[in-house]
Amino acid sequence: MDETTEQLNRVFAALADPTRRDLVARLAAADATVGELAEPYDMSLQAISKHVKVLEEAGLVTRSKVAQRRPVHLDAEVFDLMTKWIERYRRTAEERYRRLDAVLSRMSDTDQPQEDAS
């Protein structure tokens, strides 16, 4: 498998978990520390940190150090990769539906009784 495929596999696997999807949604609004991310959950700071690590390994988030804080940032570039992958299959599916519509239309036209003009 090439690197792009491997990265997509990591991203989709990371986003398969509802907690991680929620973390991504919250980080889309603003950067946050692991402690801030953990606040609404009934789980340990260590558990949230593990979720963040999975997101980080998938390339969805990065961490930086600002003074004593270590905010987590959402990396939107990965979403471009996902969008391109999804778009390729969406276009293929749409083309298949257009061909099916054309076939059904032709079938419908041949099933219509011809009016006698005499």
Automatic annotation (TrEMBL):
Q: Where does the HTH arsR-type domain start and stop, copy by copy?
A: 1-93
Keyword DNA-binding applies: yes
Question: Membrane: is it a keyword of this entry?
Answer: no
Full protein name: DNA-binding transcriptional ArsR family regulator
State the UniProt keywords alphabetically: DNA-binding
NCBIfam families (UniProt xref): HTH_metalloreg
Q: Which GO terms describe its molecular function?
A: DNA binding; DNA-binding transcription factor activity
